[in-house]
Amino acid sequence: MARWPYCTTQWQKLRLAKLASSPVCIICEMRGFATEANTVDHITPIRKGGDPFPSLDGLMSLCGPCHSEKTANVDRDHVNSTGRRFKGCNVDGNPVDPSDTWWKVST
What we know:
Layout: H1 9-21, H2 26-30, E1 39-42, E2 59-62, H3 64-75, H4 101-106
Antiparallel strand pairs: 1-2
């Protein structure tokens, strides 16, 4: 976590504020589990034009495994075959990825 902006005091305060407001991993919660979040992730990666210091709505609280899944499926340069950041369904059978087009059509 030594690269900008993660080494700044501004990021550390923003990270703590997000974890305080959303202490449970959002993806695990959708999958029916209550896993403590320990990582804060930019919804839109900085390297893809995201704001380095967005509002709390521009961030998501994740556990380590879910953060790794999102990084592998979205933040890397290769293309994910499904186009989803997170695989799997919630307890109702709906995709757990909040950015899935299914959510935009059905809401």
